[in-house]
Specification:
There is one protein chain. Helix content is 49%, strand content 21%. The chain has 16 helices and 19 strands. The longest helix is centred in the middle third of the chain and has 68 residues, at 324-391. It starts with 8 loop residues before the first strand and ends in a 5-residue tail after the last strand.
């Protein structure tokens, strides 16, 4: 065999990836540059762009077979001189004829011997051109198997193909004979070893079966699902717990892709089943993934994955635990903690309210005592003034002031009586009373303080008496809370406008209290000219514990409790407000309420 010239380029056209790789390795070991194509179309394009010194092509290929490609190459003046070897199975005599018709320079049957292939390449690259195909030299026509053939090939080419056929057959016979001798020797050795190995193999099989049955029993007894996959992520073991957890029977999953049990947003976990293990050996991964059952339902699974290599193969063992109960328990625990936190806040608020209630009760008792003590000297003053009036004592101007003094004394006594009534302790009970008179008595408690804050109370009561059946103390608390809220809102507006002395600056606040009667109910509206409220604040004013007051100012009843009191009377309460433009609280009470 002649030496090969390094740098020669050989184009391999083969649709089988394995055959391409075999040819590539054989040729590269001899210093050839290799170009690869997968079909006849790519082969022609590669031949024109790479200009190889020799082409080796398979016959059966998609898109364009080896015969078609060979004809196009031999009809191209730029490529016609390039030697071309066809690879064929040589199943029929016609294949040699087709090769001659296409203009091939030689052919080789599969499977081929590497040395024989290299000798063919050597002959075409290094020997005289007389062995190349020259289809224009003459034409030969003949019939074979009922078909007529016309071959444009030289005698040398035809002889070359016939010799190739003979050489292929001889080469096959030599290889077959060699293999028969080797096979006979191997058979003799196998006969001896088979007998020795059979007994050991039977024992090994029995031992492995016992181990497999033990492992399977252990896996099936586990509460968690145990799944085994190969390097492609195909299931090769599916435990009983996996059947129960996912709803797939083992026969449904064996040989199928593990991705069937992962939701679309858990493909990262699924990809771990195809990740190549490191050379360090075993790898482990633990995490959570959204898993899919056969019925399409989802659950959160805790995935523990081990990757390992055994006998050159890659495997994964996954242990899956259904975390549905744990997540429900954690959610329940979170909800319980939130409820406990809210309950604690409610308890703390209630405790503060109880403390404030005690303060208010003590203040009420103190106010009642003070009212009683003040009322006694006022009665004495009243009596003295009346005696002076009866005696006609004093100058004329002083006599004229006696009626004014008596009016103020009566007014003071009325305020003290109202204060004592408000401070009086007693259990909650409903009674029938006139609403307007009750509002007057309530307003009297705060009217003086409102005047000091430059706030005027405007009363717009419906004509005639309106009778309601309610708890006086609870209703008084609601009215006073609303009035105090309005007062504080107007004071805040006063501060925002920079009125240090509102009376001098001309600023004037107003609280309008109006009533209106319908067939079945009475409406009481408290409308102020304060700062109003933002929409987001207005949505929460009746929520428990919600307040916009500073902690030191939070002594009021709270609109949530006011709502509870009004609703317990069969009524309703609502609030309207615009930021910077005052607020209005409307209370609806039924006229005919049960005693």
């Amino acid at each position: 065999m002649s030496e090969y010239v390094n740098g020669h380029t050989i184009l391999v056209v083969e649709d089988s990836e394995m055959q391409r790789e075999i040819l590539k390795r054989i040729l590269m070991t001899r210093g050839f540059n290799i170009k690869m194509a997968q079909n006849g179309v790519e082969g022609i394009e590669m031949a024109r762009s790479a200009a190889p010194q020799l082409i080796i092509s398979d016959v059966v290929m998609p898109m364009k077979d080896g015969y078609q490609m060979c004809r196009e190459i031999k009809s191209d003046p730029a490529l016609a001189a390039t030697p071309l070897i066809l690879l064929t199975q040589l199943g029929e005599p016609e294949e040699v004829i087709y090769g001659l018709e296409a203009g091939a320079d030689n052919y080789l049957t599969k499977p081929f011997n590497a040395d024989y292939l290299l000798s063919k390449i050597d002959a075409l690259l290094n020997q005289s051109q007389r062995f190349w195909n020259n289809p224009q030299e003459r034409c030969v026509e003949f019939d074979l198997g009922g078909a007529h053939y016309k071959i444009h090939s030289s005698r040398v080419q035809t002889l070359n193909f016939l010799l190739s056929t003979y050489e292929n057959v001889v080469q096959r016979n030599i290889e077959l004979y060699r293999m028969q001798i080797q096979l006979a020797e191997i058979n003799e050795q196998l006969d001896q070893k088979v007998k020795q190995r059979t007994a050991a193999l039977a024992a090994e099989i029995a031992e492995r079966r016992a181990a497999e049955e033990t492992l399977r029993a252990m896996a099936d007894s586990a509460h968690d699902a145990i799944i085994n996959t190969d390097e492609r992520g195909m299931v090769i073991f599916w435990s009983s717990a996996a059947e129960q957890m996912f709803g797939f029977r083992a026969e449904e999953m064996l040989g199928n892709d593990i991705s069937r049990i992962f939701s679309a947003n858990s493909q990262g976990s699924r990809a771990l089943f195809q990740k190549e293990p490191s050379s360090a050996g075993r790898e482990r991964w633990t995490g959570e993934a959204v898993m899919l059952r056969k019925d399409g339902s989802r659950f959160h699974g805790e995935l523990s994955l081990s990757a390992f290599q055994s006998h050159g193969k890659q495997f994964r063992v996954a242990i899956v635990r259904d975390n549905t109960e744990r997540i429900q328990w954690e959610t329940s625990l979170t909800d319980s903690n939130e409820k406990l936190t809210n309950a604690l806040a409610h308890l703390q608020q209630t405790q503060r309210m109880l403390v404030q209630s005690e303060k208010m009760a003590a203040l009420g008792r103190l106010a009642a005592g003070v009212a009683h003590e003040i009322k006694n000297p006022l009665n004495i003053i009243s009596t003295s003034v009346q005696l002076l009036q009866m005696d006609g004592a004093g100058p004329g101007e002083e006599k004229n002031s006696f009626p004014t003094i008596m009016d103020q004394i009566r007014r003071s006594l009325k305020i003290l009586d109202n204060l004592r009534d408000f401070a009086r302790e007693g259990k909650a009970e409903k009674s029938v009373f006139e609403l307007h008179d009750f509002l007057e008595r309530t307003i009297a408690l705060v009217e003086y303080e409102m005047k000091l804050d430059n706030v005027t109370i405007v009363k717009q009561f419906a004509p005639g008496p309106i009778t309601v059946n309610a708890d006086r103390d609870q209703l008084a608390q609601v009215f006073l809370n609303i009035i105090n809220n309005a007062r504080e809102s107007m004071i805040e507006k006063q501060e925002r406008t920079g009125c240090a002395d509102p009376q001098k600056s001309g600023w004037q606040g107003a609280l309008t209290i109006s009533t209106a009667q319908t067939d079945n109910s009475v409406s009481i509206t408290f409308r102020d000219t304060g700062v109003g409220a933002a929409p987001e604040t207005l949505q929460k004013v009746f929520d428990p514990f919600y307040t916009t007051k500073a902690e030191r100012n939070g002594t009021g009843l709270g609109l949530s409790i006011a709502m509870g009191i009004i609703e317990s009377h069969g009524g309703s309460i609502a609030m309207e407000a615009r930021e910077g433009d005052g607020a209005a609280v409307n209370i609806q009470l039924p006229l005919d309420m049960p005693a």
